[in-house]
Structures are given as structure tokens and as C-alpha cells.
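Input record (one chain):
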Amino acid sequence: MNEILECQGLTKLYGKFVALDNVSFAAPTGGVVGLLGPNGSGKSTFIKLAMGMLQPTSGSITIDGMAPCPATKAITAYLPDANFLDEHLRVDGQVKYYADFFADFNHDKCEALLSRLGISPKQKIKALSKGNKEKLGLILTMSRDAKLYILDEPIAGVDPAARDFILDTVMTNRAEGSTIFLCTHLIADIEPILTHAIFLNRGQVVMQSSVDDVHVNQGKTLDELFREVFRW
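The corresponding structure, as predicted from the sequence alone:
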């Protein structure tokens, strides 16, 4: 199986602080990969490196065989953990901005998702509830026919019903053959959709495995193993 995302000896320092320490792993094409770790483990730094917002101190990271660049951003749909919507626009204005910016934006998919959620294209974004703003961000991200989706803490701070909506939206609207890369510390909720897991702690990879191997070889759920590895 080819790897859509791969890093070798990836290290990132902030002064003397080591945010990522010699990280090496590959995310197989077509999988649903969880980068899992507690807050402060290095997940956000990794995402910023993958998106080209930071440069490695040493080592390498590639997406579809390329170092992060405009070409990799064109095939990567990224959902940050903070609101990125323009509060001054209406929903249809934000949709147009996305469609103009990303050649792989799928209008039909976006319209269907907005209709399902009951968000009118004429609504002002600043008038949306916090939950609907988060869902609009997810809809815009998943309306791209991307090769790789990187989702940063997509279910943090939302109620169980919203989590179900988010995970269902992710799994039913991903482009065919695409890879989903989920970064989170909420393991139990996303375990049913994961095919592979990478545990990150204090900037180092402490485990990487297929989820099936964890179940068979460890005789545990991923959540149980995570609680053991990261026990205080």
C-alpha cells in the first residue's frame, strides 16, 4: 500500500524545547489514521509542519511524495481546531471563497450537506450558533474531493449528538480512495472508524499499529491501550 503522508526523523525545536523528536511513520493511502496523544504531545506542531506553516529543524515530511508546498495544499483538506470562518460573510459568500480557492471543491456535496443541516446559504455567519459554525467548517472541508483530509480535534468540545454527526459526515463524504488523518485525544469516540493508530507522547512516537492488530495481539480496545500508555 502506498503512503500518502510520510515522515522520517522529523524533529522540531522551539529554542531548546523539543516539540517533535525524531518522529517516523507513514499513513497508508485509503486509511483512517489517528494521531493520538494528550494535550502537549506534539500533535499541533505536526499538523503545522504537514501544512507548511512550520519548517522542520531536521528530518523530513512528505505528502504524496512532496515536501509541503502549494501542490500538497491543493490535495489536502485541512480542518483546524479553531474557527476559521469570516464572520463578515454570509454562508454562500464563504462557500464561494472556498470554491474559488480550491479546484477540487464539490458544490453539489456542499449544498446537500447544508440542506441536511438546515443552514441557509443566506444566513450571516456571525448569526450562526457556535455548533453550527463548527459544522459549517466541517462541511466546507469535507466538500473538497481531496486526497488527504487532516482534521485537528474535530470532536473536541461538542456534545455526543454533534460527535455522531461529525463522524458520519467525515466517513460518508470523503472522496473515494482518500485518506483521513485525525488528530485527537478523544479515543473512544473515534475508535470505530480508525484503521490505524499512532500514539504520540512528549514529541515521540510510542506506538504505531493497525487497529486490528491492537485488538488481536493486545486483546484490548485502542482506548484501553491508550489509557495504559498514558497513565499518569
